[in-house]
Amino acid sequence: MLLLIPLEKNINWKNPPFVTIALVLINIFVFFVIQGGDAKRLAQASNYYFAAKLHVIEFPLFADYLSSVGEYEHSASVRESVSQNKQAMWIFYDIQYTGEFMEKLHRNEIITIAHPKFIKWKLSRIKFDRMYGRLVTNNYSFHRNDAITYITSAFLHGSLGHLVGNMLFLFIVGFAVERILGHTQFFFSYILGGLLSIGLWALVYPDRSVLGASGAISAVMGLYSVLFGVRKIRFFYWIVFYFDFVKAPAIILIPLWLLNEWYGVFNGYQRIAYVVHIGGYLGGAAIGLLQAKVFRTVDFDYINESSEKQRRISDLERGLNFMAELEFEKAKRVFKEMLQRDPDDQEVLVKLYRINKMHPLSDGYHSIALKLLKMGMGDQHYLMTANEIFSDYSKHARPTMRMSSKEFCELGVCFAKGGYTNNAEQIFTYLLKKDKDLAGLPDGLLMLATAFCREGKENKHRHYLKLLSDIYSGSHAAKLAKRQRC
After folding, report:
1. What is the pLDDT of residues 432-444, one digit of tens each?
2. Domain 300-403 coded CATH 1.25.40
3. Secondary structure of residue 28 in the 3-state scheme
4. Which of 71, 249, 419, 472 fits a disulfide with 66 by CB distance 3.0 to 4.6 angstroms?
5. Does pTM surpass 0.70?
């Protein structure tokens, strides 16, 4: 058996998947609250069923019915259990969920009045039906003659494991599809996919009940496969006892998923509704094609983020491999190509800076260093990297750093505000020697003194306040310095 789970996207909580979360919560509410008493009611009903010996009469007749409709393997399994005198719950469930058999049973066509135990069986059956009829699961599972159950059945689950498995799949895949289609389109696609899955079940097994969200969730998987198409995404896969991660085109889900489900139809456990999965998956794929090709309501920018992200990872890895092999010119070409797509990719800029540092006189080295420093001045998130680059650039630049006094001062202020006082002090010490009359220098010194105060370095705080008062006594910054205490 095969399990495939796409793991390409992370949730963007700035645009939460409201519908996916709501569907998960509704299913959980239905299971624990609305279906909450079903386990106890089912236990009472099934205990009575076997205690009243209803299985002794009904199981063999159910096997005969299955043979009459051509389900010979199913019939043989029932007969084997009967021959071993087993009180098999799976047969109990199959009887309740086989609509035509139940209709004939209630019309006294399976067990007729002529049967020697008819009266005893009938009285016991009526009592059991009353007990079983109190189950929410029984009343709202799919029944071909009850239209509302085409929808309600998709919100019911037979066990906690059934619920957890379905909700896990819904959450993992649903949030990405919802982001691509939008909240409204995703909701209606989910409901329509669920209806299509039940529709195929009704065609194949018109007389059998079914429940669970797996049909609608299979539709979401079908949507995912078609919407992501040939784009390579990351999958977790599990085959029997082996599991791993792999990158593959999303569209590969279609044949693999369908083959796995068809295998289940012909060789799998009868209690799993493989036909519902197939109907949902095909329905979801069809809905996805309509959304993408006809209605054009698909956010392809979001889908393409994955491709761009993967391309960046691949190119970065290629560049790093070239560096490891000392093929620096090849690495430089890769990084420059990446910067053409994203000129502000700080990680790539740093790699290119490291390569260009081998030629400290080159224009490329200076231009990359200045770009990284200016990014730090413009965005607090880049300031730590800018601080590291400045420490390195100030030591290796030849013949000297290519920055104007004004740029030095602005950078010193940014470092002081960010708490990088070592480099800030180095800059302002340099400026006091080189360009003492620079307009922004008094404010810079005040900022530096304030930064030392925040660090608890009172001596340096007093030193730079005194320097400010001595050199720039008439400045506004000097007046502010007189009122500052640390």
Report:
1. 999 998 999 999 9
2. yes
3. helix
4. 71
5. no
